[in-house]
Specification:
Layout lengths: L3 H4 L2 H11 L4 E5 L12 H11 L16 E7 L3 E8 L2 E8 L3 E8 L4 E5 L5 E3 L2 E6 L2 E7 L9 E5 L6 E6 L6 E9 L7 E5 L4 E8 L2 E7 L7 E6 L4 E7 L8 H13 L16 H8 L7 E5 L5 H8 L3 E6 L2 H14 L3 E5 L11 E7 L2 H18 L1 E12 L14 H8 L3 E10 L12 E9 L10
Parallel strand pairs: 18-19, 18-21, 19-20, 21-22
Antiparallel strand pairs: 1-6, 2-3, 3-4, 4-5, 5-12, 6-11, 7-8, 8-9, 9-12, 10-11, 13-14, 14-15, 15-16, 16-17, 22-24, 23-24
Helix pairs in contact: 2-3
Length: 459
């Protein structure tokens, strides 16, 4: 269980609030010269700062972040992550608690990044400072460290309140990477570029914590790790979210409960360490042919790795970052490529269409609180004729233990709007011992996407 109070102190956030009221704009500018660009209001940022002080059931307004739409969000004891669309591209905001922001913008070549404050700004080389009462907001442009050429920082000559970051060569990448910090001890980031994949690693120490972020191009998820100054790990390096995660106090507790299942020495009982027999039967019989595949609730990745070994192009999704850390190692050991994503099964990003979706045990948990959201996901991410193999707990089981159980009529009701059932039969879930055949009763359901139904529109 996470103690919200331990993540940030009220006094620190009051300083951040003072800082944020100074900001009027913090976004890539568009058009001729540095005068154009979307506006970010100080009052909106003040609201954002207050909301970051505690877990919230509501997402911050996209406009307060200079975004048109928030597409990824996670609250955590040590950070808050917000990703989304800006008018000229995409933006990542990683708030490293209690007082450091990493802003990673992917805009158009030749765009201008602008920060406006209401006090006189000071600029030295690629760093800037804006007074905030007894404190100061210290920021720095990190793209020089990434190897981008032709960038420059200047102060607006009229207002003296503006910091512009301009790439003087129009052909230069429009990526803008900044650190903004409140407090006397300013982090000194170490920035390491990887020119092979255009990724950047940023490492800095703040509030006696060492934060390490790996930030690839926006189309891929980044990573974050946190440790104490003495090197003891507080948060093992893990993927950042690709979608909107459950949030608020209840959502954070739910995520921690799922993730903690994979932080123990012994993996959870549903992770049997080998591909599901039903999946192997259909793939090896040719009933399911190689194509683009999505594994929902992929856990440590056994089924996703199996599909990749059979020629599928696979995306594995799970809400537990620790499970995906195992999955990454499995894929590397098997020498196969799988795209891993931290995301909620009812809020997977628009990454379809897929030819095949597989779920062993995700739906039977999700259906208790959002069956419609799950059905929307599999419908939205499939095209005409796509197959969906569902393995779920069976309500006909007489024993009083095992996974959640679902009635046959409910499965039909949840998916019949956009899927036709090809086969539905009773099986038993497999356990770690392949010789034991008396696992919990389950449904094996093979569904085909109907061509006469259009996929639903995501909310």
């Amino acid at each position: 269980m996470i103690d919200n109070r331990s993540s940030c102190k009220l006094a620190t956030f009051s300083k951040i609030a003072v800082l944020l009221t100074l900001f009027a704009l913090c976004a890539p500018a568009v058009g001729k010269g540095p005068a154009s660009g979307p506006v970010l209001k100080g009052a909106d940022l003040l609201t954002l700062a207050k909301s970051l002080a505690k877990f919230s059931d509501d997402l911050p307004p996209a406009a307060s972040l200079g975004m048109e739409k928030i597409t990824a969000y996670e609250e955590h004891q040590y950070f808050t992550y917000i990703g989304g669309k800006i008018p000229t591209g995409e933006r990542r905001v990683v708030f490293c608690k209690p007082s450091t922001f990493i802003i990673d913008d992917h805009a158009r070549p030749g765009d201008t990044w602008r920060l406006i404050g209401s006090g006189q700004a000071k600029v030295a080389e690629r760093s800037f400072s804006i007074p905030a009462g007894d404190n100061a907001a210290h920021g720095m442009s990190l793209q020089q460290s990434t190897g981008l050429k032709g960038g420059s920082i200047k102060i607006d000559g009229e207002s003296r309140h503006t910091v512009d970051v301009i790439h003087t060569a129009a052909r230069v990448s429009g990526r803008f990477l900044h650190l903004i910090h409140v407090g006397d001890i300013v982090p000194k980031p170490k920035v390491t570029p990887n020119h092979k994949d255009d990724s950047v690693t940023v490492e800095f120490t703040a509030a006696k914590r060492i934060f390490k972020l790996h930030l690839p191009e926006y189309k891929e998820s980044g990573r974050i790790g946190v440790s104490q100054a003495d090197g003891k790990k507080l948060l093992a390096s893990r993927l950042l979210p690709a979608g909107i995660m459950p949030h608020g106090s209840k959502g954070v507790k739910l995520l921690d409960r799922w993730d903690s299942s994979y932080r123990r020495t012994r993996l959870p009982g549903w992770d049997v360490g080998r591909p599901a027999g039903e999946l192997k039967r259909l793939v090896e019989s040719g009933a399911v042919k190689p194509g683009r595949a999505l594994v929902l609730g992929c856990g440590t990745g056994t089924n996703a790795v199996y599909l990749a070994s059979k020629g599928f192009k696979v995306v594995g999704v799970d809400v537990a970052p620790s499970a995906l850390t195992f999955a990454e190692k499995q894929a590397a050991k098997a020498k196969v490529k799988v795209q891993w994503m931290v995301a909620d099964a009812v809020a997977v990003p628009d990454i379809g269409p897929f030819d095949f979706i597989f779920d062993r045990g995700c739906y039977h948990h999700v259906q208790k609180y959002n069956a419609a959201g799950f059905a929307n996901t599999v419908s939205r991410l499939t095209g005409d004729g796509a197959l969906f193999l569902l393995l779920a707990g069976n309500a006909n089981e007489s024993r009083h233990y095992g996974p959640p159980r679902v009635k046959q009529t409910k499965i039909v009701a949840d998916f019949s709007e956009t899927f036709a059932i090809q086969a539905m039969r009773e099986i038993r879930f497999e356990g770690r011992d392949p010789e034991r055949k008396n696992g919990p009763l389950a449904w094996s359901v093979l569904l085909r996407r109907r061509a006469d139904k259009k996929p639903p529109i995501r909310d």
